[in-house]
Design goal:
The protein has 4 helices and no strands. The protein has about 120 residues and is mostly helical. It has 2 domains: about 80 residues, no CATH class; about 35 residues. The longest helix has 27 residues. The radius of gyration is 22 Å and the shape is elongated. About 0% of the residues are buried.
Length: about 120
């Protein structure tokens, strides 16, 4: 079941890679051969993404999801004698550090882009 979810997520990534440039070209580029220098329609794709993400958030918040531990995983833990930590996810230091590292990675990208555009 977990492999199916991963495969479904990866197929959605591919669809986004194909459709994203087309949508970006529609909103940013001009329909004529002239260069579009106004930013009047630039907010529309971001607004669309915000609306879609908000709708998905509401749908996921209201959905009845099963317990995250599959029966096979629970049986495997019992058979192997592994002790599972009963701590919430954000109380585990390795998860918190991973979230911080990921955040720093995403924050670094615009900072380096801004710096490289200044030094050109």
């Amino acid at each position: 079941m977990g492999a199916t979810r991963i495969n479904l997520a990866q197929s959605c990534n591919g669809i986004g890679w194909m459709i994203g440039p087309m949508l970006g070209g529609y909103f940013v580029l001009s329909a004529t051969a002239e260069v579009n220098t106004s930013n009047e329609a630039l907010y529309k794709p971001y607004l669309l993404v915000a609306v879609v993400v908000s709708i998905l958030f509401i749908l996921f918040a209201r959905a009845n999801v099963p317990d995250l531990h599959a029966e096979e995983e629970t049986k495997a833990e019992k058979n192997s004698g592994a002790v599972s930590s009963g701590k919430p996810l954000f109380k585990r230091w390795h998860f918190t550090l991973a979230v911080a590292a990921s955040s720093f990675m995403w924050l670094r990208k615009p900072a380096f882009s801004a710096f490289s555009s200044i030094t050109r």
